[in-house]
Amino acid sequence: MPHAADDSLSLTLPDESATLNLGARLAAVLRPGMTVYLSGDLGAGKTTLVRGLLRSLGFRGRVKSPTYTLVELYEVSSLNLYHFDLYRFADPVEWAEAGFREYFNAGSICLVEWPEKAAGLLPEPDLALRLSWAGEGRQAELVAYTEAGRRCIASLKTA
């Protein structure tokens, strides 16, 4: 489905620093209750982007991809931020048994890597961000799916 110009944003990220900076910019515009899908090949920078976001919110601990645990909780700025990595996710029963659905609520932000692995189980994203290789750097494509996502993109365009 095509998106209106105010529903999307394309950015060139020439290096890791630019990816971290985009994460920091996202930290400034995301609000509790939002879900963000993070897509891209292995090594495209999804966890780097999350690290930049968390650092901007004041988190100083280790930020790692939760590939084996499926989710990491970060409590920062009186906010619960859930970082999902569904690369190894294979069993929908595990989703229900782990109570993951409950993490998607008005008081938390959920960042989901590899959302296609849990198709049909996840809520619609407010914002979808795809990172792809562009020479030595990356290309970031952001698409809003909700009004909250459109506000984020509008804020990113004016920042």
Automatic annotation (TrEMBL):
SUPFAM superfamilies: P-loop containing nucleoside triphosphate hydrolases. Keywords: ATP-binding, Cytoplasm, Magnesium, Metal-binding, Nucleotide-binding, tRNA processing. InterPro entries: P-loop_NTPase, T6A_TsaE. Transmembrane segments: none annotated. GO terms for biological process: tRNA threonylcarbamoyladenosine modification. Its main location: cytoplasm. It is found in: Cytoplasm. GO terms for molecular function: ATP binding; metal ion binding. The keyword NADP does not apply. Belongs to the TsaE family. This is tRNA threonylcarbamoyladenosine biosynthesis protein TsaE. It comes from Sulfuritortus calidifontis.
